[in-house]
Design a protein that fits this description.
Number of domains: 1
Number of helices: 15
Largest sheet: 8 strands, parallel
Order of helices and strands: EHHHEHEHEHEHHEHHEHEHHHH
Strand content: 5-15%
Oligomer: single chain
Helix content: 40-55%
Structural class: alpha/beta
CATH superfamily: Metal-dependent hydrolases
Strand order of the largest sheet: 1-2-3-4-5-6-7-8
CATH architecture: Alpha-Beta Barrel
Number of strands: 8
Shape: globular
């Protein structure tokens, strides 16, 4: 089985975007406007139409069995509006994901976005996480370390501000994928500089904190191959040594994982050469940040399974772990939804 741990609903029907534009129009009239949830009229047939020629088609073509599917990351837009804005927007986005998991239970498992608002507390986020896991059966969620959209004015991930989220993660046994949203700071390009620098920043924040010591069972996925982390692994090892911290294997690698949203063969080869295979989860983010065909190979940039298949240093069992076993270990609730006892047994023996 091949599990893609990083998928976003980037092909949603127009009605979802129209709802968001209405929210923005209301805020333009009054920045403190208190929204009502309202209704988004999207039929099951529209959901099917949005997926059949897109994510589902590519799943079949590329040999992916299951995608952990969450709302479109660049649309989370936590910097937009107030707590009511984010609450109702997140609820609608997550409810669409839930409907998709009901229409295609063999193809998609849910991951939610949280209603985070800069400068606000986390009560709404905790309630939505609990709702999505316990009522909808979601297996993970996206955690935005910078809901300001590129101004970085929230506490770092090691701050006690975040601890209620970490406690809920451990209670519900779900991992967080660290994922910022669209950048409103014009110094950043969203999917190039902002995403990758945020991944790197999150790693450094966790490295210089006691989060993994305080929550020994907590699990984070840093996407996009970890940003600059694997390429500069020596720098981080050296910094840990200078700061008198434990070695990175001991400090973070029981809790922090990296995905394979890296869009060329040399990048994947570097990732698997530097990071232990047990800490790597297959992902593609297909129909996401990079959608075109690589003129050097003739294949889509985000067809990442072929990079793992073509790597010559990974053994058969390591590839199986990256494609499936590690995801089952990190997204523990997957084993409730899609049990595979042989794989579960093998991954704990390896």
């Amino acid at each position: 089985m091949v599990i893609d741990c990083h998928g976003h609903y980037t092909t949603a029907p127009d009605a979802l975007g129209e709802y968001r534009e209405q929210q923005k129009a209301e805020l333009a009239e009054d920045p403190h406007f208190q929204h009502e949830k309202g209704i988004i009229d999207i039929s099951d047939d529209q959901l099917r139409e949005s997926l059949e020629g897109a994510q589902l088609k590519l799943q079949r073509k590329r040999g992916i069995d299951l995608t952990i599917f969450s709302p479109r990351a660049s649309w989370m837009g936590h910097h937009v509006g107030n707590e009511s804005t984010s609450k109702f927007w997140s609820e609608h986005c997550n409810e669409l994901i839930y409907r998709i998991t009901q229409l295609y239970p063999d193809n998609f498992a849910g991951g939610c976005q949280l209603p985070q608002t800069p400068g606000a507390g986390l009560r709404n986020a905790l309630l939505e996480l609990e709702r999505c896991v316990l009522e909808f059966g979601f297996v993970g969620f996206n955690l935005n370390p910078d809901p300001s959209g590129g101004h970085w004015d929230s506490p770092p991930l090691g701050d006690r501000y975040w601890y209620p989220i970490y406690e809920k993660m451990c209670e519900l046994d779900v991992p967080a994928m660290i994922h910022v949203s669209g950048a409103c700071n014009h110094a950043f390009q969203t999917t190039g500089s902002y995403y990758l620098s945020a991944d790197t920043t999150a790693f450094m924040q966790l490295m210089t904190s006691t989060v993994c010591r305080d929550f020994p069972d907590i699990r984070f996925i840093i996407p996009h191959g970890g940003g600059a982390v694997p390429y500069h692994w020596g720098r981080f090892r050296g910094l840990a040594d200078m700061m008198k911290l434990p070695q990175l294997d001991e400090l973070l690698l029981n809790n922090v994982y990296f995905d394979t949203c890296v869009y060329h063969q040399p990048g994947i080869d570097l990732l698997v050469n530097v990071i232990p295979s047990r800490n790597i989860l297959f992902a593609s983010e297909m129909i996401g940040a990079v959608r075109g065909i690589d003129p050097e190979t003739g294949y889509y940039f985000d067809d990442t399974k072929r990079y793992i298949d073509n790597n010559n240093t990974l053994g058969k069992n390591e590839k199986k772990a990256i494609f499936e076993g590690n995801a089952r270990r990190v997204f523990a609730r997957l084993n409730i939804k899609n049990p595979d006892q042989e794989t579960i047994q093998c991954m704990y023996q390896s």
